[in-house]
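Inputs:
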Amino acid sequence: MAIVGSRRPSPYGEAVAEQLAADLARAGVIVVSGLALGIDAAAHRGALNGGGITVAVMGTGVDVVYPAAHSRLADDILAGGGALVSQFPDGTVPRRQNFPARNWTMAALSDVVVVVEAGEGSGALITAEAALHLHKEVMAVPGSVFSALSVGTHGLLRDGAGLVQNARDVLAALNLAGEVLDDPLATPKRLGFELRPERDGILGHLSDVLPMSAADIARRLQLPVSEVLGRMTALELDGAVRRLDAGYVRALRSGKERA
Amino acid sequence: MEVQADASTGAVVFNIVGLAATSVKEARERVRSAIRNSGLEFPHHRLTVNLAPAELRKEGSGLDLPMAVAVALAMMRKAPQPRSAFLGELALDGSVCHVDGVLVAARWLQRRGYERVFVPASDAAEAALVDGLEVIPCTTLAAVIAHIIRTQPIAPQPPTAPALVSDGENSECDLLEVHGQEEARRALEVAAAGGHHLMLSGPPGAGKTMLARCLPGILPPLELAEALEVAQVKSLLGDLSSTRPLDWTRPFRAPHHGVSMAGLIGGGAGLAQPGEISRAHHGVLFLDELAEFQANVLQALRQPLETGRVSITRSGGSVAYPARFTLVAATNPCPCGWAGDTRRACRCTPAMIDAYQRRLSGPLLDRIDLKVGVRRVPLGALAAEPAGESSAPVRERVLAARRRQLGRQGCLNAQLKPARLRQLASLDAGSRQTLERWAEQRGLTARGFHRAWRVARTSADLESSDRIAERHILEALGYRLHDVAA
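Outputs:
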């Protein structure tokens, strides 16, 4: 199965992709993605964390790792028994027009394509479209209705894509889950994020998707902005929050510490 | 510098010797006409004007008046009073016209022990800012000669009284007009208090320019010595107002991103002219769209940011100009400007954003202590944003914090050398540990480490606190937007 999505995801999307890939890899599923920044990298990393095999379908020659920052990841994929594959000859440098074709290949190699966070016009939607043409299953992970990164995924869900709340939803689509399917009326078993123990009231006010500025937090807590800035720095040092754009989001941790 | 004139027998020639630039040699025709048209005698034989010392290059039209006076007095076999200096350009009819840089020249002359300076009447108020120098306002060459030979003395220019400092007119923008943006407001206050450089990052229309324009208004008015330095730069550029030469307003300069190296740093043919950074001396230099400036122009900012001076070497010689300014840089978060905006989608690829931010990274960014994100407030929601304080109470706090610093160390925190920082702003164990943890996590340079430390000192000064507490360090680190996890 393929996991694709935004190159600039929210911490939420990144955590979902990583967790989903890890759980599926543990169940023996081969995770296919595109070695790009964001969701792709999280999916590869998750699969490796789950001790599974992952395949990177590249839009460049197999000898040209793009982005270059992912050469470590590419090595790890090979070391984990996975593969780097490409339809382009060796030495092909990244070219905008090659990536849609790569997206088709990803869909062709997979039985199911799961989209995690895709804004309007995202390349992940090309992969989903290709999957439809190739009669593969398309599934999507819902996001916040306030987030621009949910526009593409929610569009897919509205048009009939399968809902992904956890790895079992995907396993069911792959007919690997046996007979037991989730009861649609039961509370979904959540992807197992661990929130850090909240020793600071500020964390409760933060979203994991939408950044909130220090000024907004200060106003909500009726604190001077200088103090909020300091307290956010302390949380940042502990890895409990992250900077995103001009504000802060809650950092989500999946079971394993992220590299 | 001395101007000597000698009329001797020989063919009718007029020579100027003593390493004179073309602009000085041109004076020949003006001097000849001005003398004749003033009813004075011009020599009918060989005339030599010597500009001493000969190894120094002479430039500008300000030498017209001294040359004409020397020639005219030579013909009359008279000499001016000792320790007198002359400065002015001549029109063909003998009237004395404005020259640039009179204030600079007057201060130099006073320090060199001159007692009296003859300057164009239009520049007399400017020269009379200098204490202990008699200023003779000159309208025509004939009047100058009449004064020297005591047939009709000119009344000296009365000393120019500094204009009264009036509160509140220090700036065109007041913080009262800024709704919300509490983070940026706080950063402005810290920047003003400690002399730190500031970067505002946010989408178009977020109010970055307005915030920057509020900075001069929360700075204390110029001190006398500072105002004189500011006036000197203006004087060199011929920008000084003749009615109000001394101004207490902090300069605010906002050059366009197309500005050339010479325009920003200083330069031009011959002797370099001061650039925007010197015009912003003791004030604010606002660089909007920082990433659009030419890379080499931004590189050249590094020396003045560090030292508060700039030296420029041109064919005409080397000059140093003051350039101690507070830099306020503004930048979009990405090429299209909309990354992180809640209402509009950003269309940039991660690679584009990366390339854009890389243009800014490195040594220049490392020298900016405070970096804050500014969010765009949609027009409809603007009224709902809380109005903040006006500039006046903020200025009071800034003033108090600056007094503490000047009393303790004689300079603002941003200018503290690392050795004195360690001595005057010691950290307790907890604060030091926090700072070191961040430095390790984010791969801080030694410069970045000290910069965060200085900002923490300012944060403590704004609280009138002698000690730096951990919360001050934490706040200072909160302004380090560009430190990324190593």
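Remarks. The mean pLDDT of chain B is 85. The CA atoms of residues 230 and 281 of chain B lie 6 Å apart.
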